[in-house]
Amino acid sequence: MSELVSAVIPTYRRPGALDRSLGSVLRQTWRPLELVVVDDGSGDNTPEVLQAWADKAKAAGVEYQWHTKENGGPGAARNFGMERASGELFAFLDDDDRWYPQKIETQVAHMRMHPESGVSFTRYVHSGKEGQPKPRMENIRDGWVFDSLCSGQTRAHLQTLMIRREVFARVGGFASHRNFEDFEFCLRASLDFPFTAVAEALTVIETVESSVSREAGLEGDLERDHLKLEVLRAFRQRHGAHERFHEPAMKQAFARIYDEHIKHLIWLGRVDEARAAWGRALDECGEQPQLAALKSKLTRAKVAGWFGRKLRKP
Question: Of 84, 103, 122, 149, which is the most buried if we count CB atoms within 10 A?
Answer without folding.
Answer: 103
